[in-house]
Amino acid sequence: MDLDERVASYLEQAEQLARDGEYGRAEDFERVAGQQAAGLGYGRAEQLALCRVRATRLRLQQRDAEAVVQLRDAVAIADGLGDVLPLPERCALLAELGVALHHAGDHAAAVGAFQQSLAVAFQISPSYWPAAQTRLLMSFPLRRLGRRGEADAALREALTLARELRPPGADKLIAQIEAELGEVRTSHGPPLAGPAPAPPRFPPATFAPEPQAPSGFDEVAYRAALADLDALIGLAEVKAEMKRMAELLRVGALRAAAGLRRADVSLHLVFVGAPGTGKTTVARLFGRLYHALGLLGTDRVAEVTRADLVSGYVGQTAALVNKVVDGALDGVLFIDEAYSLVRPDSPGDFGPEAVTELLKRMEDDRDRLAVIVAGYPKEMGEFLATNSGLASRFSETITFADYAPDELVAIFAAFAAQADYALDDAARAALREVLADLHARRDRFFANARVARNLFDDVIGHQAERLMAGGPGAAPTREQLMAITAGDVRAAAAG
Question: Are 30 and 57 in contact (CB under 8 A)?
Answer without folding.
Answer: yes
